[in-house]
Amino acid sequence: MPLYETVFIARQDISSQQVDALTEKMSQFVTAGDGKVAKVENWGLRNLAYKVKKNRKGHYVLLNIDAPVDAVKEMERNMRLDEDILRHMTIRVDELEEGDSVMLQSKSGRSGGRRDSDEDGDSAESSEDKSDNDASEEDN
Fold first, then answer.
1. How far is CA 66 from CA 23, 31, 80, in A?
2. Which residue in 34, 49, 70, 93 has the fewest CB atoms around it within 10 Å?
């Protein structure tokens, strides 16, 4: 069966219990269509980039799904009809992610300090090195 990742955003003014019930309701549409929900991640209440239907925040939920196309279409149809869901997106993937998604990893991996290294792991130049380089460039 094809594999999918679905993310939906629920309204900010519903409770987390209502979000869980909404997630369970959408999962039932998949299981009723002979599919299965491999993983559910609740990313919590997050800020939106812009207002969506007069909401500045939304409850984000990720579903990893292994289901036939008809089951996913039925779930998406019900997402469009549900007034508590602001937006949703489903994409087909080659394989499902094991463990936590990037969103949960970044949420749990936050540190209070500032990171002083770039992507390659090299440490950033100190402010003294930068000022020495600036002074030598002015001499040229």
1. 16, 10, 21
2. 49
pLDDT, tens digit, 9 for 90 and up, residues 128-139:
454 455 544 555
Whole-number CA gyration radius for the chain: 22
CA atoms of 46 and 44, how far apart (whole Å): 6
Q: E strands along 12-118, which residues? A: 36-52, 55-66, 85-93
Rounded to whole angstroms, the Cα distance separating 51 from 31 reads: 33
Just give the CATH number of 3-95. Answer: 3.30.70.60
pLDDT digits (tens, 9 = 90+) for 42-64: 999 999 999 999 999 999 999 99
CB proximity list for 109: less than 8 A, separation 6 or greater: none
- Look up residue 65 and give its two tokens: 């799904």
